[in-house]
Amino acid sequence: MKKAILGIIAITAAMLASPAIAQSRDTSANWLVRARAVHIDPSDKSSPVAGSGAADRIGVESRTIPELDIAYFFTPHFAAELVLTWPQKHEVYLDGQAIGTFRHLPPTLLAQYHFTPDSTVSPYVGLGLNWTTFSKNRLLDGQGSLEHDSIGLAAQAGIDFKLDRNWSLNVDVKKVRLRSDVLIGGVKASKVKVDPVLFGAGIGYRF
């Protein structure tokens, strides 16, 4: 995934060398919709199971998912972005062995600042909140589950590479605070700090 992002940057840089791309972005358009492929890389931190033994025994599967982002620009510099996908399935591991799966839905709302909105290369940063809801917990043959909801901060940095007045390529990275209690028989057995880093690349359309 990281190699793919670097490849997109290199291809875009070559395209931007053409005079045909040297027109201004349409910053009068308020809406920007992006479709991205995003790789989720969890931190895999956890407290000792049942309060004893080693920490970090519980892990969550890394995977690549589709993502849809809808941004609204209040001014050329300031925007709000809603990050969406559909429920995603992940494996859970204990000491490297699969112990079940869960699904999560992680919408995120970010306030963004775009440094050079009129430029061909437009970097930005964002800060906001993530709300993740867990469902279809199937851990330890039904004996285990995750806490239902997690709310935490999300931070973002990215770059838009303009292709013309409407279309652009995008790369970004997000860090999300995502944590959950692990329950066994309804009793808290551990706390998992998923806290993933998300590497994304995709295409956007502004209108």
UniProtKB/TrEMBL annotation:
Query: Which superkingdom is the protein from?
Result: Bacteria
Q: Name one Pfam family in it.
A: OmpW
Entry's Gene Ontology BP terms: transmembrane transport
What does the entry list under GO cellular component? cell outer membrane; host outer membrane
Where would one find the signal peptide in this protein? Answer: 1-22
- InterPro entries linked to this entry: Enterovir_OMP, OMP/PagP_B-barrel, OMPW
Location(s), subcellular: Cell outer membrane
Keywords carried by this UniProt record: Signal
Q: Name it.
A: OmpW family protein
